[in-house]
Design brief:
The structure is a homodimer. Among the domains of chain A are: about 120 residues, Butyryl-Coa Dehydrogenase, subunit A, domain 1 (Orthogonal Bundle); about 300 residues, Up-down Bundle (Butyryl-CoA Dehydrogenase, subunit A, domain 3). Helix content of chain A is about 55%, strand content about 10%. Chain A has 24 helices and 13 strands. In chain A, the strands form four sheets. In chain A, strands 1, 2, 3, 5, 6 and 9 form a six-stranded mixed beta sheet that branches. In chain A, β5 and β6 form a beta hairpin. In chain A, α10 packs antiparallel against α11, α10 runs parallel beside α12 and α18 runs parallel beside α21. The two termini of chain A are about 25 Å apart.
């Protein structure tokens, strides 16, 4: 095995003239081309970010205490905004770009720098600004958005309560209409109604978009959102608002999470964000959406971007960790080759290749899938509600990607930390803070276990219903009425994939391990079978009596997760295939084809038990898959540096002492 | 499904008179009995610890900065020593107990409190004190041990260097004998020779046990250890010693890790720890062990306790996390039961049971296996080198358990963090600091990937050779001479297990999923087959030329890990079986039998791919195993509180705001 890393662009026999090796911080030609491919249609935006954002802008010192980290995050956010960043998602008329997909791409780039800063701006511009933008009407936009963009109006997204996190429909906060004064009264009637884990609340927020049950003339119209002042301009708490500081957390020290409680706080009627429902001049509730449930989920649906950002941000953190650990593994040696005496590079060990390369392959796969998801977000936004099925599909996809990407990111950052040994544990090397900051991505914007169940639910319903239109018992009963077999809809690159599958079907006897058509078949098979099995179980559960209903549906939970994961894997593979199709450069394409092989085989290996259990593969093939994962990891390890360059982080952002 | 937790001791129909429910902080009768069973022969020691150690002794505030955490850890260590704790491992003549197993048990208990404090004392008493105790002779014991015990002589274990962590034999530090002055000169000849990640170095240590190549009359006698003064009594660095502070880490803030470099530092000859080799009055090197390699590994072998402690300490951290998350899951509700309206406890959800109960089962399995390992440590210590095979088996077992337990601990603490949602991320709830502190357990005292390879190597050699006697190429070549099939030696409870296996073999057609004999067969089969497969590969690799040797052996790495894991799983199962045998109380026994079922089936499920691939089970059985894991998790969830009480942490040590 050779121990030199070589950039294939410089030594491909058929290739171009040898390029000089890039100087420190410079990117190799292959790395550059991979970057362009993975950035896709967001390349210009992302490259602009790489060209203009320095380490000083986005690198946080991991040793800072809570107070310093908080001050830094606020100051950096303001500074980036002043230079025109972070506001892509706002209307062009106000100085933004009005493009949702671009705002996600910006979030991904910021997350390659620092996650505290990313979440600080995510709360301010994404969640708080997004609530106003999506749930408010013209007056709200004019009144609040300019200040939200430039951070003079700092705000919180006050949804979660101590008693209810995942179950938003059960929030206890009330927003009661008072006809006498034409006001609303915002109140936290119980200790568990206190808003909790709210970013921007502990220190900086002046306003909050408060989620609560809207009560008008004694009737509960479901959860709505009102703009409530929580601090005066001098930052003292507003009257009736009790603010708590949740202090030290497992990470994200730059984000000031806190609690908010409201004691009969009165606000003018127009402060209710009333795009989907509000109280008219006659003091009567009115909404274009009759069903409370549908209204609630339509409102939540407009906030889907936050969930997409969290998945993408977590993936960025994993990309950064992979960039650090892989670069280190090409430099660090340990133990001598038996009989030879030279010390071996970490990356030349099989176990080390097995840790890093399959995860680099996943980073590419998830990157292409994020691009698809961002495109989808923009299409749905542009359609402005005219395609409800597309909206529901987007929500389901966002939940699926968020759950899968955050899980993978946490696991991968940990692998990278350990792959750097003791050095990986020293804060100055950049991995431990990344791990600590990314941790909570598994929880916020929806607990992963809950999200995967929502995905399974919408798959069972074929996106026919919004999540809220049916509880699980309703879903089970509706499933009982569903007929026959599941037809999976390809999510992208339909023609290409049809062709691949057809070609694999024509020559099943010769099906190679690296046949993309065969991969797609296996991924689809697993999804279809898991989903059909779930539907069968849910049908049975739907027949249970009310008393036994919980137990019956509860017994399907693990199957729901399995179906959601199988679905997500398939969607990601399709996105990878589509991403490769769009690449022009034949050499880069050939590298990405191998990376996609490694992704597909890694997922198949992870699901080897299922594939054998359901007789999709035999023992010989199962063993061959594992061997192929090792072989591909070894082969691609020679391209490790260009591959991590392609993940898109400027080297200086890595902020890792071991790489200096 | 019932939503009340009940202690079966109070409601077993056949059972005793109902006991009153224990008051806060009190333990239920079943919990108490499980504790006794899991503590095993260490019960008295552990119960004494629970009776005397308060939260104030061992609970650290997670918000403290580096300086405060370091000061606290030192002060608490001294305070515990003053009260007679932490010194069990030292000779009875000096005020210890002289019992190695007891010192591990003490380490496990301390780790239920705080890991910084545990590692601080682990460095001072375990590593530094252990080096003097095991590698020194009478003068060293008399001179250094009393002060080491009472912490007036604070010390470092200066083994790892920047350039060499896992590869201790390649250390660059030199200890050169100077005949003219009858001294040694300790030197760091290169930047990579700098000692790194050394606990007690950055702030508190006055002495260091320094590992370096011993050079006498121009000949390198291999790595030896010398006592070197690194700070004066006023804590200024000693002449010739450069000390660096490695500052902030991913966790363990209470431990002051630093670097040490030596510039031709001279020490009197007697400061070499010379039990296994040193320079005599004639200035000539002498050792009872002729082979340098054997000498080195004999010396390292005496330090095996540290590795055992790390595995046990990590498991304690996981026990604590499981105690927090499980207790929370019995209190916290979320979402309503469809059709009914009452909110459901987290622990009543299938997905939540699946997260916690199999890990509780593993906590018991690993606890019983730790007890066996501690017994084994004591036997080997008592044998004082008279049974070399037993020593090598102990070293292999220690490495195996360290790698498997630390991996499991990190994964499990993370599962527990996420199982508590946003609350799990708040430092005040105790989980994030636990996760951060336990992280590095995967790395220190031996990188897990390296350790598992050592385990595989000694399995291949049947404990016939010390690790150091052969490099991997030598192992491969020796394997080539090995004949025939592997006979696994049962590690404990041989008669019982023989009987179980024989009974399962007589009735294979009726083999139930919960047949312990069948479990043992499956675990043994997996180990034997994996090991034989590895031997075959290694035999082939042993025939490669010198040039191809690395590549050939490298291709066996993943198989080495698989064999080591299979072996460890089997050893753990056997220890669990032996542990249950020793329990008298029939009710507690019946609970533990179910817990052992869940452990065995969880491991079988994790290895479902392998079992199917090698036709040990068919599809029907594979599915039945998964279902049984869910069913057992649900059944045992009704005993969740007594089960976590049995894990042995005083409730007040949990230091978790969500439980108050």
């Amino acid at each position: 095995m050779t121990t030199t890393t070589h950039d294939a662009h410089t030594d491909t026999p058929a290739g171009r003239a040898p390029a000089p090796r890039p100087a420190a911080g410079r990117v190799s030609p292959t790395g550059e081309a991979l970057r362009r491919a993975l950035d896709g249609r967001y390349h210009d935006l992302k490259q602009r970010w790489r060209d203009t954002i320095s380490a000083a802008d986005v690198v946080r010192d991991p040793t800072w205490d809570l107070e310093t980290a908080r001050e830094w995050a606020l100051a950096q956010m303001v500074s980036l905004v002043e230079r025109g960043h972070l506001v892509a998602g706002f209307p062009a008329a106000l100085g933004g770009i009005g493009n949702q997909a671009d705002s996600v791409a910006q979030f991904e780039m910021l997350a390659l720098g620092d996650l505290s800063l990313t979440i600080k701006s995510g709360v301010q511009h994404g969640l708080f600004g997004g609530a106003i933008n999506n749930l408010g009407t013209q007056w709200h936009h004019e009144t609040y958005l300019p200040g939200t963009m430039d951070c003079s109006i700092t705000g919180c997204f006050a949804m979660t309560e101590l008693g209810h996190g995942s179950d938003v429909q059960s929030l206890e906060t009330t927003i009661t209409y008072l006809p006498d004064t034409d006001e609303f009264e915002v109140d936290s009637p119980t200790p568990t109604a206190r808003k909790a884990y709210i970013g921007n609340a502990a220190k900086d927020g002046k306003w909050a978009a408060v989620f609560g049950q809207l009560l008008v003339a004694g009737e509960n119209q479901g959860v709505h959102v009102a703009m409530v002042r929580i601090r005066e301009e001098d930052l003292t708490p507003a009257a009736g608002v009790t603010i708590g500081d949740q202090g030290h957390k497992g990470g994200l020290l730059g984000v000031d999470n806190g609690t908010l409680a409201f004691d009969h706080v009165r606000i003018p009627r127009r402060q209710l964000l009333n795009r989907y429902g509000g109280v008219n001049d006659e003091g009567v509730y009115e909404s274009a959406i009759a069903s409370k449930n549908a209204r609630f989920f339509t409102m939540l649906g407009t906030l889907v971007r936050g969930r997409i950002c969290v998945g993408g941000g977590a993936a960025s953190a994993a990309r950064k960790a992979l960039s650090i650990a892989t670069r280190y593994a090409t430099k660090r040696t340990q133990f001598r080759a038996p009989g030879l005496g030279e010390e071996i590079r970490l990356l030349d060990y099989q176990t080390h290749q097995r840790k890093l390369l399959p995860n680099i392959a996943k980073a590419y796969a998830y990157g292409f899938a994020m691009n698809e998801l961002m495109d989808q977000l923009q299409r749905v936004t542009d359609a402005a509600g005219s395609d409800p099925k597309a909206s529901r599909e987007l929500e389901s996809r966002a939940a699926a990607m968020k759950a899968v990407l955050t899980r993978w990111a946490n696991d991968t950052i940990q692998v990278c930390r350990e792959a750097c040994g003791g050095a990986g544990y020293m804060s100055e090397n950049g991995l431990t803070m990344l791990r600590q900051d990314a941790d909570v991505f598994a929880t916020f914007e929806g607990d992963n276990t809950v999200l995967l169940q929502l995905v399974a639910k919408s798959l069972l319903q074929g996106y026919k219903q919004t999540w809220g239109d049916m509880d699980l018992r309703g879903t089970a009963q509706a499933t009982a009425r569903m007929v026959g077999e599941t037809v999976l809809e390809r999510t992208t690159a339909r023609a290409v994939i049809d062709r691949l599958v057809a070609s694999a079907a024509r020559r099943p006897e010769s099906a190679q391990l690296t046949s993309r058509g065969w991969h797609v078949q296996m991924f689809e098979d697993r999804e279809r079978h898991t989903l059909e099995g779930l539907a069968k179980r849910m049908r049975a559960a739907g027949k249970a009596s009310t008393e036994d209903s919980f137990t019956a549906i509860n017994a399907c939970q693990e199957h729901m997760l399995a179906a959601a994961r199988a679905h997500t894997d398939r969607v990601v593979l399709e996105a990878f295939i589509a991403g490769i199709e769009a690449v022009g450069d034949p050499y880069v394409k050939s590298v990405l084809i191998q990376v996609c092989d490694l992704y597909a085989l890694t997922v198949l290996e992870e699901n080897k038990g299922w594939l054998l259990e359901h007789e999709r593969i035999d023992s010989t093939r199962a063993k061959a898959i594992s061997q192929q994962v090792l072989d591909l990891s070894a082969r691609l390890s020679h391209q490790a540096i260009p591959l991590v360059e392609g993940l898109g982080a400027n080297e200086e952002w890595l902020n890792s002492a071991i790489l200096r």
